[in-house]
Design goal:
Jelly Rolls, 2 helices
């Protein structure tokens, strides 16, 4: 596996080793020792799987209590994936990093606790799978506006097209009003 640093060192892109033959392919998506050696020390308690249509934007989500680290990947289609640092003590507070994830490139993205996360679907359909380091806690569920001008995320949205948002995401808080981490 190849572990690639981003502009925010705690957020890591993972390129798994993929073995192809006439039957298809095989790859490891989690190997505790290899991930630990790559700088990711995580214990996962929950796996999630979502399916979204083209133009859907989910996020920017996080939990104010019981924060979740997430190991994310796309098993069908393609998304533009974003992590935003919400740790006030971090030199990268308020900064974001992104990566294109797809079934073709098979990349994974490690987003540690203390970050907001979101993605935008580029393909007709995308299936998104992720492992979490803590359980979903509805009373801690938070959302920051995907288009917050303070963050200035460069989403690859076609000019004149509005992303498809949930009611929760339409009501996301501004970054200035977000309940951030110490």
């Amino acid at each position: 596996m190849n572990f690639i640093s981003t502009e925010i060192p705690d957020v890591i892109i993972i390129e798994p080793r993929v073995f192809y033959d006439e039957r298809g392919f095989f790859m490891e998506t989690w190997h505790e020792k290899k991930f630990r050696d790559g700088g990711i020390r995580a214990s996962f308690v929950q796996d999630n799987h979502s399916r979204s249509s083209k133009g859907t934007l989910r996020g920017l989500h996080y939990q104010s209590c019981n924060p979740q680290g997430k190991l994310v990947r796309v098993t069908h289609g393609e998304v533009f994936d974003v992590a935003v640092d919400l740790r006030k003590s971090s030199p990268h507070f308020g900064k974001w990093v992104s990566v294109y994830l797809s079934d073709a490139n098979k990349r994974m993205f490690w987003i540690p606790e203390g970050f907001a996360h979101g993605f935008y679907v580029l393909s007709e359909v995308a299936e998104f799978q992720y492992k979490c380091t803590d359980f979903y806690t509805p009373e801690c569920d938070m959302c920051i506006r995907w288009d917050d001008p303070t963050l200035g995320i460069s989403w690859p949205i076609t000019a004149g097209e509005a992303p498809v948002l949930s009611a929760k995401d339409e009501k996301g808080a501004s970054f200035e009003m977000a309940d951030c981490f110490p």
